[in-house]
Structure formats: structure tokens, C-alpha cells
Design a protein that fits this description.
Largest sheet: 9 strands, mixed
Low-confidence stretches: 1-23, 260-282, 292-300
Strand order of the largest sheet: 4-5-6-7-8-13-14-1-17
Number of helices: 4
Number of domains: 2
Mean pLDDT: 85
Distance between the termini: 10 Å
Order of helices and strands: HEEHEEEEEEEEEEEEHEEEH
Length: 300
């Protein structure tokens, strides 16, 4: 009996699909067990305040360019004051985006997160959600850059779309350059949270600050690769981070939480398409092995 004609074809296609499926595993979930209870900003600890209110230079809906109260505005580009290695690129400037994140390369006016890894620009998101500070009862976004090799961006008691201030969120991002001497137990990036009263804007399918698509917490390279905190974009994320903080290090193009006793490890995730491709790859290789066995049996 002749060797099956398509054995090598099955094997080759299967191997390529298997590799493609593995490559799809680009989003890593970081366990929320790394969070530590505190209920303070980093600036509450070191003193000196949260900086000055960000004046918008661009954005989307109600960006209020030249002003501070806005919906989907951003400020930038601003100088970091240091060089930041992030997902294989080096940045010296950033954009402070009203919707709970900073980005590199361009500002982000998007208000509904698809997860940080789905953003169109490289992004660091302490709480990517539809912040709206137009209500006079809402606080603002602040930027502090007076400490060498350190940037602090704070969303202090901010409301949510559409001009709601019945519930408020308070959170802060700390970002450090390579020349910053990091104290023991801290890291290069810090997310700090006080009271977190809402997680979804009205235009993201939510009502009263909840439901729909909740906030995203994590990091992304703008090309579908990223690291997200467990609970990111899921109902209840505001409660998970409420009155907590977490430090991260940026190493070798990746993100590592800082903790002396984490209860579980980071878990790489495969997208639904990745699972399909991975399955097809395994099926192709399996078909090849079956054909080889049939061929070997005929020769015996």
C-alpha cells in the first residue's frame, strides 16, 4: 500500500496552526491576591500633594480643550522626565487621558475599554473607564512631576458619564524611571486606590455606575498584547481594587507584580480565536499521525 499522499501536508498545516494558536496567548492575567489593603494615595504617604489639574489639549466628546473639566479629553504630549522601556519600545513622552489611563504615541479618547490589550496605543491603565468630570461635584485629573525620575497622575474623586457625580472614584498612578532608587517592597509602577464608587459609564452599557462593560486595569502594547488584573472588565472590579494598592516592575518587555507572598501565579490566557487555531493545529498533527500508523501497518 502506498504512503498516504497528504500526510506531510496535514503535519505541516497542523504545525503552523499549532504555532499560530500558541502565539495568540498574548494576554496574561495577574491575580488580585497581589493587592494590599491601604486606602491611601502614594502621595498621602510621601506628602507634597497630587500636583496640578490637567489642562486638556485634545480628545473626543466634550474634551474642553484649554480647560480642566471634560468628558473624553487628554493632555499631552508631556515629557516623562526619563526614558521608559515599555513592550520593546522606549518613550520619553506620554499622554494623560481623562478616562483613567496614560498612553504613549498618542492620546486616547476611547471611553469603553476592551481591555488594555485592546487599546490602539501603548497604555497603562489603573482604571480605564468612562470618567466624566463636567459635574461641579466631581473632582479632576491631576499631574505631578516635581520628583526626579517619577511621574504621578491622580484621578481624584471623579464622576462618570453622563455628568454623574452621585458616586465617585479616587485612584492614582505612580510611574518611575530607570534611575529611580526603588525602596524595598515597591516597584516601578504603582496603582493606588481610595474609595471606588463606580465602574461603568452610562455609554458603556451601565446604569448608575455599574453593569455593561466595567473598567479595565492593566497594561497593553497597542497590538493586542497585555497584562490585566484579575477581574479587569468584569462586574465587581471597583470592589476588588477599593482601598487597595499594587506595585509592578517592567522587565524584559513584561510586567511582574511585586509581592512577598502572592497566593497564585500569573496565568497566560488564550483568546477564543487562539483556542480555535490551537485545536485545528492539534487536529492536523493528529491526522498525520493516524495516516503514518495506517501506512506502517500496510507495510508490515
Amino acid at each position: 500500500m502506498a504512503r498516504p499522499k497528504f500526510g506531510w501536508l496535514f503535519a505541516t498545516v497542523g504545525l503552523l496552526l499549532l504555532i499560530a494558536g500558541i502565539v495568540q496567548a498574548t494576554v496574561t492575567t495577574l491575580p488580585d491576591s497581589y493587592l494590599t489593603t491601604l486606602g491611601k494615595y502614594y502621595t498621602d504617604i510621601i506628602g507634597g500633594g497630587i500636583g496640578t489639574a490637567a489642562v486638556m489639549t485634545g480628545g473626543g466628546n466634550a474634551a474642553n480643550v484649554g480647560g480642566t473639566r471634560n468628558d473624553d479629553g487628554f493632555q499631552g504630549p508631556l515629557n516623562l522626565g526619563f526614558s521608559l522601556a515599555f513592550f520593546g519600545n522606549t518613550y520619553t513622552q506620554y499622554y494623560a487621558n481623562n478616562n483613567g489611563n496614560i498612553s504613549f504615541g498618542n492620546g486616547i479618547a476611547a471611553f469603553t475599554p476592551s481591555g488594555p490589550q485592546g487599546a490602539t496605543q501603548p497604555i497603562i491603565s489603573p482604571f480605564f473607564a468612562d470618567v466624566d468630570t463636567r459635574n461641579a461635584a466631581s473632582g479632576l485629573m491631576y499631574v505631578r512631576s516635581d520628583i526626579p525620575n517619577e511621574l504621578i497622575v491622580t484621578w481624584d474623586q471623579v464622576g462618570y458619564y453622563d455628568t454623574n457625580a452621585d458616586k465617585l472614584d479616587s485612584f492614582q498612578l505612580v510611574l518611575r524611571g530607570p534611575n529611580y532608587v526603588v525602596p524595598s517592597g515597591e516597584g516601578q509602577v504603582g496603582f493606588f486606590y481610595k474609595g471606588m464608587g463606580w465602574e461603568t459609564g452610562d455609554a458603556s452599557g451601565g446604569s448608575g455606575g455599574f453593569g455593561g462593560t466595567p473598567a479595565a486595569v492593566g497594561f497593553g502594547d497597542g497590538l493586542s498584547n497585555g497584562y490585566i488584573l484579575q477581574g479587569s472588565t468584569l462586574n465587581g472590579i471597583s470592589g476588588i481594587v477599593n482601598n487597595k494598592y499594587i506595585w509592578f516592575n517592567l522587565t524584559n518587555g513584561g510586567v511582574t507584580p511585586v509581592s512577598s507572598s502572592p497566593s497564585s501565579a500569573a496565568v497566560p490566557a488564550v483568546s477564543p480565536w487562539g483556542l480555535v487555531v490551537l485545536g485545528l493545529g492539534i487536529l492536523g498533527i493528529g491526522q498525520y499521525l493516524v495516516s503514518r500508523r495506517a501506512s506502517s501497518g500496510a507495510r508490515g
